[in-house]
Write a structure and sequence with these properties.
heterodimer; A: alpha+beta; 7-stranded mixed beta sheet; 5-stranded mixed beta sheet; globular; B: alpha+beta; 5 helices; 31% helix
Chain lengths: 793, 166
C-alpha cells in the first residue's frame, strides 16, 4: 500500500467530482415547485425612505409576492446579530445599532436590501423589481475614515454619536510613553491598509424550503459554518428552534472569510419559503457580491517605534482608525481589535506596546474578516515600519530584524499585548528564505536589470500570526458571544470503513483528503475506506466551521480525541475476544495485538464484533463503534515565517512585474505538503493582489466605484509569478497533532514583502513609503515627479 | 417561444428558450448540466467556458439561439464513456491545480483549447497570457500553469499519460 498518512502528498479525493462537472454547489440545487427571489438593493449610499409602492411590481407576470421591511417587522423578524461585543476604553459596550434584514426607514449603503420580489422565474422577479417605486430623500453620505471621524460628520446611525462604534485600547500607555521619553530615535509612519472585496469565485446563493407537514425549514447556503448560521438565524432572526431548522452548506466555491457571516438573503429565502409554502431560491449576480459580501481591511494608522542607540525596539505606539461599514457584520468588531492589535509584537521582543483602535460607521458595505483578518493589517504595519526604521537610521533591514527577534530559546513567549506564543524559530525561517531567494546575490540581479533599463528591488517580511481560533473561555472574556471549540463524530462501520462527521467546512482547503489522512494514520484504515462528511446540520452533531485557519488545529484535534476513544473501546472488545487483559492490548497499524504475542485482531474484526455482539462484553460495554468529541483549544496557534519578493519596474510605464516570490513558513506539522504549498500560493496571490492591484474605491458620497470585475482588479495569471514555497517546522505545543494552520499565512506575510520590494526598487527616487495598491499610475507619477524631463518625453 | 436545436456532449437537443436566454442558462437550467458555472456578470471570470464547435467560448456571452446547429462540449462531456479522464483533467488532479473547484470547469475547457491552438509548443508566458480570461481566486495560478504545461505533450502525443498517483 502506498503511504497515505501524515506527511504524504496524497492527490485529493474531492478532485474527481470537481473535474468532471459533478460538484454540487448551492446554485446547482433546484427544488420542486421552486420560486426565485430577486433582491432590490439601494443604489444610494444614504437616504431616507419616504414610501414604497410595490403594487405595479406585484401585478407583473409570474410575481407571487413582494415583501418589504414592513412585512418582516409585522412578522416580528429580528435584526441580523453581531457575534462579538467590544468594550470601550471606559468599559462601556460598543454601539450596536439595529441591522434590519430589509431596510426600514433609511438605507445606509449602496447594496442595502430594500425589498424582495418572489416570482416563478428569476427573470420575472428581476423584471418586476424594476417596477417598485421608492420615494428616497438623499442624505449626505460618509465613505472614508477621515470623513466619518471629522467634526460635524453626517451620522450613519442616530444611536452611534460621532459615527463611533467603539474606542478601544490595549497595552500599557504609561510604560510606552516613558520609553518614548528616553528613546535615542523615534521613527513614525502613517499608512493605510486598503479596502478589499473578497470575490470568492462562487457568488453567494441560498435556497429556503419549508415542509408544512412537519413545520421544518431547510436552508441550503454558501456558508463556511452551517451550524453558526443555524444558531444566529434561528435564535435571533427567525425565532426558530434548532430542531426545526436544517442548514446545508454543500460544495462551496471559495470563502476567504466572506462566507462566514449570516447574511440577509439567508433569512429572506427561509422566511419567504415559510410564508409561501414553496422553496425560494436566490443567487447573487457578481455585482451584488461587490455591494453585499462583507469587505475586508480598511485601516488608517499611525505607528511610532522608540529605539535605543543600537536599534533595539523599546516601545511601539499605534493609533488606528478602522471602518466597520454601515452595520456590524457577524465578527466585524473582533477583527481590528483581538485579531489585529494583539499581533503588534510580531516576531519582535518589543517590551512595551500601546495601541488605540477607533472603529467607525460609514455608508459602505459592512467590513469583516477577509483571509488573514487583522493579522495582515498588523504584519503590514510592523514590517513596513521596520523597513522605514532601516531607511531612516541606515541600519541593515535584515540585521535590524535579527537584532529584535524573539529568540527561539524564549518560547513560550508572553507578548505585552495579551498573547502567549507557544513555539517558533524566526531565525530558521529567515535563514531558509534568504538562501532560497538568493538574497545575497541580489546586487548582481539589480545591476543586470539596470542594464536592461529596469528598476529592480527586493523586499522582505518576517511575520507571525495567530490562528487555530480559539479557547472558548478566553474569547468569551474578550467579548465573543460563542464558543470556538470544534466537534468530530467518528463512526467505524461494521465492515471497518470509517465515516467522519466534522463541524469544520471545506470550501477549497481539501479536508476530504487531509482529514482522511489523519484517520489513515491513526486508525490504519486505507484512504478509500474513509469518508469525510461536513456541511449539514442534520448529519453533524455540532460545529463552529472553518475560518481563522482552525480546521486542522481545532477540528483535527477533535478527530484525534474521538479516535482515541474508538481505540480505547476497541481495546476492551479486543481484550474480550482474545481473552487477554485490556492493559496488554496494543493498537498499531489498524491492528489490536496482545503484547508479546502474535495474537491480533484487525479493526474491521473488532467493529464487526461491536455491531454483531454475539461474543461481546455486553454487561460492561455498549454495542457499536462510534464516538463523539468536542475539543476546545488551549491557546491560539502561531504560524510565522519569512517572505521575500523581488520586483522589476518599467520606468516608462510604472508597470511592476513580480519576478520572484519566496515564502518559507512554519505552519507546524505538515499533513499534506502538496495541499500546504497550494494554500500558501493562493494566499500569496491574494497578498500580491492587495499590494499591487486590488482596491475597493468609494466616491466621497459613498457610491461604490469598483463594483464589477471590470473595475476591481482581480489578479490574473499573467499578473503573478511562480511562487516558491518552503516550510520549516516547530510543533505547536498544545494540540495533539502539533499543527498550526496554513490557510492565511500567504496573505499575511506577502503584502509588506511586495511593498518593501517596490520601495527598494524606487530608492534612488527618494521614496520612503507608498500606500497599497502600488498601481502603475502611482509609480509612474513618482518616477515622473523625480525626473520631469523623462515624463515630458 | 423560439426553439434552438443543438448537440451537447454528443446528444441532440431541441429546446424552447426566450430570446434573451444565454447559452449558459440553457445548459444549466434547461439541460441540467450544472458543471458549467457562472462567476460574474461581465464576461470577466471564465467560469462558464465551454467549447462551441471545438473552440472555447464564454457561454455567458452567447445567446442560446446563437448556438443553433452547434456542437457544444461541456466539462461533463470531456471524460471517455468508461470514465477515463481527459489528459487535462488528469493533469489538473496530478498537479493540484484546483482547490474550491468553482473556476475549474471553465479553466479546463480554456486550457484544452489553448493547448490545441499551439501544436508548436507552449511557453509559461504563453500559458499565463492565454489564461487571462479565466479567474481563479484559490490557487494563485501556479499549479494551473504547471498542469497545462504537463498536459501539452500528452495531448500532442509526445508523452504518454502517466499512471495516476494513489
Amino acid at each position: 500500500m502506498t503511504f497515505e498518512g501524515i506527511g504524504a502528498s496524497v492527490r485529493r479525493k474531492e478532485d474527481l467530482r470537481f473535474l468532471s462537472g459533478n460538484g454540487h454547489y448551492t446554485d446547482d440545487i433546484n427544488r420542486p415547485h421552486q420560486l426565485h427571489a430577486h433582491i432590490l438593493r439601494s443604489d444610494r449610499p444614504h437616504a431616507r425612505i419616504g414610501g414604497m409602492d410595490t403594487k405595479a411590481a406585484a401585478a407583473m407576470p409570474g410575481v407571487v409576492a413582494v415583501y418589504t421591511g414592513a412585512d418582516m417587522q409585522a412578522d416580528n423578524i429580528g435584526g441580523l446579530p453581531c457575534g462579538w461585543q467590544i468594550h470601550n476604553k471606559d468599559g462601556t459596550p460598543m454601539a450596536e445599532p439595529m441591522h434590519p434584514v430589509l431596510a426600514t426607514g433609511k438605507v445606509r449603503h449602496v447594496g442595502d436590501p430594500v425589498a424582495v420580489v418572489v416570482a416563478e422565474t428569476k427573470q420575472q422577479a428581476k423584471d418586476a423589481a424594476e417596477a417598485i417605486a421608492i420615494d428616497y430623500t438623499d442624505l449626505p453620505g460618509v465613505a472614508t475614515l477621515r470623513e466619518a471621524v471629522a467634526a460635524g460628520a453626517t451620522a450613519v446611525h442616530d444611536d452611534a454619536p460621532g459615527n463611533v462604534c467603539y474606542d478601544w485600547h490595549i497595552g500599557d500607555k504609561a510604560v510606552v510613553d516613558a520609553a518614548f521619553a528616553r528613546a535615542a530615535h523615534v521613527v513614525k509612519l502613517d499608512l493605510t491598509n486598503n479596502r478589499l472585496i473578497p470575490n470568492a469565485m462562487e457568488p453567494r446563493a441560498a435556497v429556503g424550503e419549508f415542509d408544512r407537514t412537519t413545520g421544518d425549514y431547510t436552508l441550503y447556503t454558501t456558508s463556511q459554518n452551517p451550524h453558526v448560521i443555524r444558531l444566529l438565524m434561528g435564535a435571533f432572526v427567525l425565532h426558530l428552534p434548532e430542531h426545526r431548522l436544517r442548514v446545508v452548506a454543500p460544495d462551496v466555491g471559495g470563502g476567504f472569510g466572506s462566507k462566514i457571516y449570516h447574511y440577509a438573503e439567508e433569512a429572506i429565502v427561509t422566511w419567504a419559503a415559510g410564508k409561501l409554502h414553496r422553496p425560494v431560491k436566490w443567487t447573487a449576480e457578481r455585482t451584488e457580491s461587490f455591494m453585499s459580501d462583507a469587505h475586508g481591511r480598511d485601516h488608517d494608522s499611525t505607528a511610532e517605534m522608540a529605539l535605543d542607540a543600537e536599534g533595539r525596539f523599546l516601545a511601539l505606539r499605534v493609533k488606528t482608525l478602522c471602518n466597520m461599514g454601515a452595520y456590524l457584520s457577524t465578527f466585524g468588531p473582533a477583527v481590528p481589535t483581538y485579531l489585529y492589535a494583539t499581533l503588534l509584537a510580531g516576531v519582535y521582543s518589543t517590551p512595551a506596546i500601546y495601541a488605540e483602535v477607533k472603529a467607525l460607521f460609514t455608508n459602505t458595505v459592512p467590513v469583516d474578516a477577509y483571509r488573514g483578518a487583522g493579522r495582515p493589517e498588523a504584519a503590514y504595519l510592523l514590517e513596513r515600519l521596520v523597513d522605514v526604521i532601516a531607511h531612516d537610521t541606515g541600519l541593515d533591514r535584515v540585521e535590524l530584524r535579527r537584532k529584535n527577534f524573539i529568540p527561539s530559546s524564549a518560547f513560550p513567549y508572553q507578548t505585552p499585548v495579551a498573547l502567549q506564543y507557544d513555539s517558533g524559530d524566526y531565525e530558521a525561517t529567515l535563514q531558509a528564505c534568504l538562501k532560497a531567494s538568493g538574497w545575497a546575490d541580489f546586487p548582481a540581479r539589480r545591476a543586470a536589470a539596470a542594464a536592461r533599463g529596469k528598476l529592480r528591488g527586493i523586499g522582505i517580511s518576517t511575520y507571525v500570526e495567530a490562528c487555530g481560533i480559539a479557547p472558548s473561555a478566553v474569547v468569551g472574556s474578550l467579548g465573543a458571544r460563542a464558543g470556538l471549540y470544534e466537534v468530530a463524530n467518528i463512526r467505524v462501520h461494521p465492515t471497518g470503513s470509517v465515516s467522519v462527521f466534522t463541524g469544520t467546512h471545506s470550501h477549497g482547503q481539501g479536508h476530504e483528503t487531509t482529514m482522511a489522512q489523519l484517520v489513515a494514520e491513526q486508525l490504519g484504515v486505507p484512504l478509500d475506506q474513509i469518508e469525510i462528511v461536513h456541511g449539514d446540520t442534520a448529519k453533524i452533531p455540532f460545529g463552529m466551521g472553518t475560518y481563522g485557519s482552525r480546521s486542522l488545529a481545532v477540528g483535527g484535534s477533535a478527530m484525534v480525541k474521538a479516535m482515541d476513544k474508538i481505540i480505547a473501546k476497541g481495546k476492551k472488545i479486543a481484550a474480550h475476544l482474545m481473552e487477554a487483559s485490556v492493559d496488554d492490548i496494543e493498537f498499531k497499524d489498524g491492528k489490536f495485538t496482545v503484547s508479546g504475542t502474535d495474537k491480533s485482531k484487525a479493526l474491521a474484526e473488532i467493529s464487526l464484533a461491536a455491531y454483531v455482539p454475539h461474543n461481546y462484553p455486553i454487561e460492561e460495554l455498549e454495542p457499536g463503534l462510534e464516538e463523539n468529541a468536542f475539543y476546545d483549544p488551549k491557546n491560539f496557534t502561531f504560524p510565522g515565517g519569512c517572505h521575500i519578493c523581488e520586483v522589476e519596474i518599467d520606468r516608462e510605464t510604472g508597470m511592476i512585474h513580480v519576478v520572484n516570490f519566496t515564502a518559507v513558513d512554519d505552519v507546524g506539522r505538515v499533513i499534506n505538503p502538496m495541499i500546504v504549498e497550494g494554500q500558501v500560493q493562493g494566499g500569496v496571490a491574494q497578498g500580491i493582489g492587495q499590494a499591487l492591484l486590488e482596491n475597493a474605491v468609494y466616491d466621497a458620497a459613498g457610491q461604490l466605484l469598483t463594483g464589477s470585475m471590470m473595475d476591481y482588479t482581480m489578479p490574473r495569471a499573467d499578473d503573478l509569478p511562480n511562487i516558491s514555497v518552503g516550510t520549516e517546522v516547530t510543533l505547536c505545543t498544545h494540540n495533539p497533532l502539533g499543527v498550526k494552520g496554513c490557510g492565511e499565512v500567504g496573505a499575511i506575510g506577502s503584502p509588506p514583502a511586495v511593498i518593501n520590494a517596490v520601495v527598494d526598487a524606487l530608492k534612488d527616487y527618494g521614496v520612503r513609503h507608498l500606500d497599497m495598491p502600488a498601481t502603475p499610475q502611482k509609480i509612474w507619477s513618482i518616477i515622473a515627479a523625480a525626473t520631469p524631463k523623462m515624463a515630458a518625453e | 417561444m423560439p426553439q434552438v436545436s443543438l448537440t451537447v456532449n454528443g446528444k441532440a437537443h431541441k429546446v424552447e428558450v426566450e430570446g434573451r436566454t444565454l447559452l449558459v442558462e440553457l445548459l444549466r437550467e434547461k439541460l441540467g448540466l450544472t458543471g458549467t458555472h457562472v462567476g460574474c456578470d461581465t464576461s470577466q471570470c471564465g467560469a462558464c467556458v465551454v467549447h462551441v464547435d471545438g473552440k472555447s467560448v464564454k457561454s455567458c456571452t452567447m445567446l442560446a439561439l446563437q448556438a443553433e446547429g452547434a456542437k457544444v462540449t461541456t466539462i461533463e462531456g470531456l471524460a471517455q464513456a468508461d470514465g477515463t479522464l481527459h489528459p487535462m483533467q488528469e493533469m489538473f488532479r496530478e498537479h493540484h491545480a484546483l482547490q474550491c473547484g468553482f473556476c475549474t470547469p471553465g479553466m479546463v475547457m480554456s486550457a484544452i483549447d489553448l493547448v490545441q491552438m499551439h501544436p508548436e509548443g507552449l511557453s509559461e508566458e504563453q500559458i499565463r497570457h492565454g489564461l487571462e480570461g479565466n479567474l481563479c481566486r484559490c490557487t494563485g495560478y501556479h499549479n494551473i500553469v504547471k498542469a497545462i504545461a504537463a498536459a501539452w505533450p500528452i495531448m500532442h502525443g509526445k508523452a504518454p499519460m502517466p499512471v495516476a498517483a494513489e
